[in-house]
Specification:
Thioredoxin-like_sf (chains A, B), isomerase (chains A, B), 53% helix, 199 residues, alpha+beta, DSBA-like_thioredoxin_dom (chains A, B), EC 5.99.1.4 (chains A, B), four-stranded mixed beta sheet, Glutaredoxin, homodimer
Chain lengths: 199, 199
């Protein structure tokens, strides 16, 4: 059997542990000779279907405190800026729709990194036309047209479909990394997933 | 400030992710020049106080399936035998009481490893006099006397006190590793905790 030289990264910009994964994945995958398929989906409807009112990481106070401390340490370890968001979880529907539209484009990685840097590196609301215009301008892309396309019925339906696919495949959190049918959950399994893809 | 050259390992034999940690901790800590303090406590009362009927890892089917697959992969990676327990979570009160009695002894590490190998490496019920006699005999220890001491009111109260201490310190899962006040949760944070202890 040919090894899977591709990983699928299922992500949601609202998820804190997606931040280090999104920042690290392309360079790490390139170093392993592995391609990344970007798979934006919405965690909210999945948590709701499971019966969780929010991420299970944030339903208990001591655990939430721990997760933010863990995020600080991981960000420090990977040399990433990190500010605990003053609003959490944040709405990220517009950037998620743009990511859906762009998921096969050459700029998807850089778009995701800039969005997550604004969200978790600088504590900014990224669910606004202004924030997205700033990032798309930074990438020298036609922001008005892209935002209109992102909000088209076709693209909105595509994001809903991706979310349904995630549910069918057993996704219950993010980041979720697939290597073929093999699932790896969490930023702390990113290296394992890449090793699996190359073995 | 002097570095913390000690880690506290808070554990419960019923927790699956405690298995790889208990198997790995002493040799890994020794390689880092770090001492291990063994801190047995009961997860059940903590989950109950939080309002969880079981570990949050096992309250949803797709997540449970994932955790067992993840356990298989971790066991393979660390060269450990692993059989998914046919009963889970298993009662482990007698071995936990023996661990409480023995937590400052020279044989605590080996006792914990043998108990966890029986539980997660061989799918055996370890909450019996027979299972514990086998392990204590293996260690050439006076099993009858130790089991009686383990079930004394004093020792039972000590385990309850440890569990209360864990709750006060914000423990919400296991393994939980403390380096001073710094908390590290999960087998996948063991190396981070040891690095923290030596920095």
């Amino acid at each position: 059997m040919k090894p899977h030289r591709t990983i699928e990264l299922w992500f949601d910009f609202s998820s804190n542990y997606c931040y280090p994964t999104i920042m690290r994945v392309e360079s790490l995958a390139a170093a392993h000779g592995v391609a990344v398929q970007w798979r934006p989906f919405l965690l909210g409807p999945i948590f709701k279907a499971i019966g969780w009112s929010s991420s299970p990481l944030f339903l208990h106070e001591a655990k939430s405190r721990y997760v933010w401390r863990d995020m600080c340490r991981r960000a420090e370890r990977f040399g990433l800026p990190f500010v605990q968001p003053s609003v959490f979880p944040r709405r990220t529907l517009l950037p998620m729709r743009i990511a859906t539209l762009a998921s096969e484009s050459s700029w998807i990685g850089e778009f995701c990194r800039l969005s997550m840097l604004a969200h978790f590196g600088a504590n900014r609301d990224i669910d606004t036309y202004e924030a997205m215009r700033g990032i798309l301008d930074h990438l020298a892309l036609p922001s008005a047209g892209l935002m209109a396309d992102a909000e088209s019925e076709t693209n909105k339906a595509l994001l809903r479909r991706r979310t349904e696919q995630a549910m069918v495949r057993g996704v219950f959190g993010a980041p979720m990394i697939f290597v073929g049918q093999e699932m790896f959950w969490g930023d702390d399994r990113l290296e394992d997933a890449l090793e699996w893809a190359t073995r």
